[in-house]
Specification:
The chain has 315 residues and is mostly helical. The chain has a domain of 106 residues: Tetratricopeptide repeat domain (Serine Threonine Protein Phosphatase 5, Tetratricopeptide repeat). Helix content is 65%, strand content 0%. It has 14 helices and no strands. The C terminus is likely disordered.
Length: 315
């Protein structure tokens, strides 16, 4: 509708300009062409970039660079920053996120950009910084992605109490999200409760998500339960998953699990280890009144949020 109205307005502008003077009409046409070159061509380049990304990321970035020269809107720049992060171009990605955050953007978008930036912090080893950022964001802004990312960070930090509490809360929030399901598998793996982990693993692989962690973690569970044939079958289901900079499982870890399956060796350790095998992070209470009690939980009403693409998780 708006496109049609815009087109009619442009035609009317050119018509009026020609009625005033031929030179004015030609000037109006040149102005429209210039606008189209910078605006519509940028849109075309971004569309081409997104279409090329799954087949050839480098070709996609070439299209993004063309669009950047013509001027992209905030949504297009956000997409560009995310794709850069996925492929490990973290310096340029972070520069774009910071540039966007420096603008006067809507509160919800600001929170989303900060959440994306927290993922980048995590992937560049700034774990504590990422946790601090997400804990601050989630006081007022929560969605499936923030639950998935922060839940994984608590697992990564080996904080058993927070990992268990937060990931169960995340599962109550969205029990169908693949990343949240994978976090639940890893939670119970770290606890050594493989039967419980299997329940979430079966639910996850039935969704056929396109990220390697789903198949690696579920195969690991079946290995620990002694079902090597099933474990190998599940690991093979993920053979077409592309491992990127964003993946938390690397090629050598997948290969190590595959060799353990071939050797029927159930002694292999999970990439995150277990809660008992690592010193648990102990939090010093700010108020000594709670030194021997669980930290009080502050409840708040969650805003409605759009769901993210389940096959394109941040983690």
């Amino acid at each position: 509708m708006w496109t049609l109205l815009f087109f009619v307005a442009v035609v009317y502008l050119i018509y009026t300009a020609f009625r005033f003077h031929v030179a004015a009409g030609i000037g109006a046409i040149l102005a429209v062409l210039a606008y189209g070159y910078f605006k519509w061509y940028a849109d075309f380049c971004v569309s081409k970039a997104k279409a090329e990304y799954s087949k050839d990321p480098e070709k996609a970035f070439a299209w993004f660079e063309r669009a950047e020269k013509r001027g992209m809107n905030i949504g297009q720049m956000e997409a560009y920053a995310y794709y850069l992060m996925r492929e490990g171009y973290v310096e340029k990605s972070e520069a774009i996120y910071n540039k966007l955050l420096a603008q006067n953007v809507k509160p919800d978008l600001r929170c989303k950009l900060r959440a994306d930036l927290a993922v980048l912090m995590m992937k560049t080893g700034r774990i504590d910084e990422a946790i601090d950022e997400l804990e601050e964001i989630t006081l007022n802004y929560t969605n499936t992605t923030t639950y998935g990312t922060l839940g994984y960070l608590y697992l990564l930090k080996n904080n058993r109490r927070k990992a268990e509490e937060y990931n169960k809360e995340a599962y109550d929030y969205n029990s169908d999200d693949p990343v949240i399901l994978d976090n639940m598998i890893q939670l119970y793996i770290k606890m050594g409760r493989y039967e419980q982990a299997k329940t979430y693993g079966d639910k996850l692989v039935a969704k056929k998500p396109y990220f390697i962690e789903a198949y690696y973690d579920t195969a690991f569970v079946y290995l620990k339960l002694g079902d090597f044939e099933k474990a190998e079958e599940i690991l093979d289901m993920g053979k077409d998953c592309r491992i990127t900079f964003m993946s938390t499982v690397k090629e050598d870890e997948v290969e190590a699990l595959r060799k353990a399956l071939e050797a029927k060796d159930g002694t292999i350790s999970h990439k995150l280890g277990s809660f008992s095998s690592q010193p648990e992070e102990i939090e010093i209470p700010q108020d000594l009144e709670y030194a021997d009690e669980d930290e009080p939980i502050i409840e708040y009403e969650e805003p409605d949020e759009d769901e993210v693409d389940e096959n394109d998780p941040f983690i």
